[in-house]
Each structure stands twice: as structure tokens, then as C-alpha cells.
Amino acid sequence: RNLGIKEFKHILYLHICEVLSEDLEALIAEFQSMDAKKTQVVETSCPPPSPRLNASLCAHPEKDELILFGGEFFNGKKTFLYNELFFYNIKKNTWVKVEIPNPPPRRCAQQAVVVPQGGGQVWIFGGEFASPDGEQFYHYKDLWVLHLGTRTWEQINACYSKEQVDYIYYNDIHAFNLDTFTWSRLQPTGTVPCPRSACQMTPTHDGSGVIIYGGYSKTRAKKDVDKGTIHSDMFLLRREGKEEQEKWTWMRVNPSGVKPPPRSGFSLAVGPGGRALLFGGVCDEEDEESLEGDFFNDLYFYDISKNRWFPAQLKGNKSEKKKRRRGKKGEQTNETEGEKEEAQGPTEIIKEIVAEDGTVMTIKEVSPAAQAEEDSEEEEEEEVDEEEEAAAMAPLVEPCPRSSAMATVKHGKLYLYGGMFEVGDRQFTLCDLYSLDLHKIDKWDVLVEMDPKTQEWLEESESEDEEEEAKGGEDEEEGESEEESEEDADHPPVKPGEALADYQTRTEKYWLGLARANMGPDAKEKKVQKVGHAMAKVFFEDQE
């Protein structure tokens, strides 16, 4: 009460930052204490994992299994982080959830790599934790290893990086030695990529280097507006020499062929024959007032040995091609070449799925055009099996456009899980699973189908909006009295024996009005509520 308004605001700001930081660390610690209660390995058969993005999907080095860890989900109001561990049996098409004591804290967007040592190991580095409202972030730089043979987690080192108000991008290179369990920072020469996040890395076929592709970064433009940049450049980090005499060199790479359009959030996996596979992603179009994204479901191959990009095109069913080549001997047709091409060209099927809350999802599927109908006599001559013909004429299903999906390759097959796409202001998080034989490239197989009814999306109703407007009107009427109170720093007193929660509920209108007055009319409602509650807490604790 004895502080001036400026001193009070300054101390309040510093305390709010401290409270938010402590709250995030406390939340992580609370989750870890819950995990610490697990003392034995528990394996449970289960349905497919819930919808998520930015998880890790790896192929088991010895078994016909895929390993899924972590990820995130946003339902419109709350962000959920996971540290669940799932194993997918490829042959049986079944899932098992494995609970192992002392797992890594909940996270998303971590890096993961599998090595065959000791019966197989999954190494997990870094990642991100977010507050439930998605406003605060906590970045890890810890290293974990999952020993697949013994079903145990091991923490190699523990180091966290607190959330930052601003963003920092890096372009440094570090190597971890699996024999000595030590980190070393590399000092490559040559043309260094600019700092970025979300770039993808893949080894060269001979193991002498690493390919770096794409990424995303932001720069501060005019009027303090952040402008995002999608990178589509490629670099080779090459190693020369061995052990103590080894040297690393950066080199800018300019591939030939048909390059993917610029995008972020794409998935990358290493396929057979020294080829990297790129699937999906999103290209955001930003302006000062809005952000709209174009989502992709295309597939590109990058031949590392030939330094060449080329798009993948589904070849379709063999029986379909065989039928198209058939015909009566001596049969003539009046179709022109252009008409034939048009008849055989791909068609786009648009399918609308209505979610439980009435939101309409539009999913596009590309399929080869139906063959022109032939008369019954010709069909009898060809003796094409009806089931085979039906399969040939069925549309080729593809995963819907998405970003931040999980991809890996096992036994020459590409597996794709989850991810997300947006419809207007709504985000759809997926839990479907597809596979594609990379030797045939004929069709996508649906292993787990997306169920739109499982989509949860919470948003404020019109009645809530009207209530907020009414509150705003009341706040305006009481504006003069609040301004007088602010000048005197005479805030609502705490009643004897009153709990913090009761005090915040009773005085919520006052503190939100004060927070709004301090933050301005353009501040987001979530931030206003958070600051208002923090202000009330600061004052309450000060009175105690």
C-alpha cells in the first residue's frame, strides 16, 4: 500500500514472470513425481494411441515393431503433453502400451534415433514442454536412452533450458560418442547454414556425412512484427579423416530434378537404396492480421547418391494396368490421343466427414480415372475376375494433407502416423496409420483409420462471448472508480481467514479490469486472465 503505482507495476511484472516460471517447473516436477511411483514394467494391450503430433516414431532394429514416444495434443483450450511409450506389432497390427519406471518427462518435438547396440537402443534428446494454455514453453536439452532388451530408461545427463520470452535460433553442431558417452562441439569449415529450427537431417549412404534440409526461422520485421521464413535450402556436412584427425566441412548442395515446394512441418525418413523420403507439411501465408496454411500430402524422394529430387506417383493396381492394355485384336477406336490421356488421367475425389460437433472436414483423395465402360461380350473375352476388377477400379486412398506427422521405414515400407491439419480456426489432430511399399509404390494401406468422432474441440460459445461483452460494459461503468483505486493502490482487502481461491473469485472482476487497463485493449483474453490472477495472488500474499 505504501508503494507508488509505477513501483508496484514493476515489482508485479517481475513477480509474475517468476511465478509463471516456477509454476511450469512445478508442473513438470509434479508429473515426474507421479512417474516415480511406477516401480515395475507394465505391458498392456491397448487400442491405437490417442491423436497427437510431434511425437517420435522409430523402427525396432531387431523386431517387426514400431516404437512411438511422446507427442502433444491441443483441443482448442488446453495443450496436453505425453511421455507414453507404445509398441506397434507390424505383423499382428496390434498395439501395446509399456510403462517403464523413471521415464523422461512429458515432451514433444524431441529428436530420436535407434541404434542396434545391446539388443537395441532408442536415444531421445531435447524437446519441449508447454503450459496447459500454450503460452509458456520449457525447452529440454537432456539425453535419455531406452534399452529395448531390458525395458529400462537411463538418463545420461539432465539439463533444462527455461522458457524464453524471445526466440533464439542456432546453427551449431554437436556430436555424441556412444562409446564414451561424451558430447563434443564440432567446428566445421565452409558455408554454414543460417540459424534455424525444425530442419531435418539424414545420413549419406556411405556414412561419411549428414544431409541438412529445410527448416524455419523468424525475424523481427517493421513495427515489431515477427515474420516467419521457410527454408528450402540443403547442405552437406562431410567428414574427412578418422578419429583425432577428422575434419568436418559444410557444403551447400543444389539438387537437380523436381524439388518439393517450400514447406515446414514435413516428415522425413530414410528408405532403401540411399533415398530419403519427404512427406506432407504446410506452407504458411502470413500477414499482419492472419495466418493461413496450405497443407500437403505429396511424397518426394531424394536420391542422395545422385543428388536428385523426384516426386513419387502411385502406380496403381497391376490388374488395372493389365486391363487397360487389353483389347480385341483388330479393334479400332475413334478416340484421339488427347481423349485417351484425359480418360486415363487422375481424378480428385472430395470426401466430407462431419465431426460430432458438426464441423465439416473436407478430405481430398486422388484416384486414377475409371476405365471407359466396355460391353459385356468384351468382358467375357478378357475373363477378368470380378473381385480383381473391383479392386482395380476402386479409388486409391491417400493420407489426407497434414503436417507434423511421424514417419519411419521398416522392411522397405514407409509408415506414417498422426499429425494435424487445420480447417479455419480449428485444428484437427490425427491418429491414423498408413503404410506404403516403397518397392512397389502402388497404393497406401490403411492400418488404422481416422475416426472423426474422436476429435475433441472446445471453444467459447456465443453466450460466453455475450457475457464477456456484458462484463466489459460493467467494467466501463466502473472505470472511474477503479482508476481512483489504482491511483491510491487501494485494492480490495483480504477478509480474515479467507482462502486465496475464494479471494480470487470474489475480486476477479476488479483484477481483470486492472490487468486490462494496464495491458491495453489489444491484449489476448487468456493473458489478461493470467496476469489478473497473478496480480490478485501477489496482493493476497503481500497482505498475509
Description:
It contains ten helices and 30 strands. The longest helix is centred in the first third of the chain and has 32 residues, at about 5-35. It is of the alpha+beta class. It has a domain at about 500-540. The chain is globular, with a radius of gyration of 28 Å. A hairpin with a 4-residue loop joins strand 22 (about 275-285) and strand 23 (about 290-305). The strands form eight sheets. It has a five-stranded antiparallel β-sheet with strand order 1-7-6-3-2, with no helix packed on it. Helix 2 crosses helix 5 and helix 9 crosses helix 10. It has helices spanning about 5-35, 320-325, 335-345, 375-380, 385-395, 460-475, 480-490, 500-505, 510-520, 525-544, and strands spanning about 40-45, 55-60, 65-70, 70-75, 80, 85-90, 95-100, 110-115, 120-130, 135-145, 150-155, 160, 175, 180-185, 190, 200-205, 210-220, 225-240, 245-255, 255, 265-270, 275-285, 290-305, 310, 345-355, 360-370, 405-410, 415-425, 425-435, 445-450.
Outline the fold blueprint:
Blueprint: H1 5-36, E1 42-46, E2 56-59, E3 65-69, E4 72-74, E5 79-81, E6 85-89, E7 94-99, E8 111-115, E9 121-130, E10 137-147, E11 152-157, E12 160-161, E13 173-177, E14 182-186, E15 189-190, E16 200-203, E17 209-220, E18 226-240, E19 247-253, E20 256-257, E21 267-271, E22 275-286, E23 291-303, E24 308-311, H2 318-325, H3 337-344, E25 346-354, E26 360-368, H4 376-382, H5 386-393, E27 406-410, E28 413-423, E29 426-437, E30 444-448, H6 462-477, H7 479-488, H8 500-506, H9 508-519, H10 525-543
Parallel strand pairs: 15-19, 20-24
Antiparallel strand pairs: 1-7, 2-3, 3-6, 4-5, 6-7, 8-9, 9-10, 10-11, 10-12, 13-14, 16-17, 17-18, 18-19, 21-22, 22-23, 23-24, 25-26, 27-28, 28-29, 29-30
